[in-house]
User: Fold Amino acid/amide ABC transporter membrane protein 2 (HAAT family) from Shinella granuli.
Amino acid sequence: MALTMNTETLSTARDRRARLTRDAVGVLVILAVAVLGYLLFPNNLALLTRITAIALLVLSLDLVTGYCGVATLGHAALFGAGAYGAGIAAAHFGITDPIAMLAVGVVAGALAGLVSGAVVLRAHGLPQLVLSIAIIHLAHEAANKASGWTGGSDGLAGIMPDAVFGLYPFDLWGRTAYVFGIVLLIAAFVILRQIVRSPFGMLCRGIKQDPLRVRAMGASVHGTLIRMYAISGAVAGAGGALNALSTQVVGLDSLSFTLSAEALVMLVLGGTGSLYGALIGTLSFLWFEDVVSAANPFHWLTIVGALLIAVVLFAPKGLYGSLAALLERRGRTDR
Assistant:
């Protein structure tokens, strides 16, 4: 019996070390890509910061769609809530400390996640999708009508964040915003890796696979999904706040259906149910979109559409999911 316990302890320790190693590798890859982007595109840091902000949105979408199986096309409402929360705090209440603005965006996104989750989770399947679309349109119209607070169609301007820790001002070249965004992305990635591997994260995966069985075990399916929606909203709100900090203006495009749909496309492109897939899908889509639109301004949407069709047909698990499956099959063959 003692030998069995020692074996189990060693196995648990090995698994923990393996997980920590994978997390460390993930962080190092993010850092390497960030440094490479900084060195290769020093004059286009605004685009790289935008990619970082959208990556947070796609990560948050992966939490509810990839890990919980909740279909939504209105997730930009959470991103926009964070952007407008941080922007309104700065423009109307004089809260210009970047960390405080980020905190406001996170709270606003989490609250928006609670509200939208309570609505979306009342339905299943196609009605759930329709509810999510209704939410993003309602949020867009509400922001447009509340022009005294949001600036309406002209956008919310007058956002002037202070220097980070009083030392690093948001410069014209976007260096501070880019570094701030990368640090935020790494922090979110590490936290979310812990969440999706925790018992709570495993419960969410179980709900996606068989909610009836999870309910029969005595777990609260609705309560679990609401909590994950709130966490997802906090991550999306952080992305929105980063976008407000970097551009110093918040427009209605932060609450657009187009942004919600593109976020879902990026997630499918990279692979659902994987944080790595969300990051790869975001980077691939936005980089490809920027390159193709510059090379062919009139037909770039056709080229992007052809790429997405090819990925869905030949890599149905997404870029990361298909590559991981291929490596796993080769590993089995080598054994």
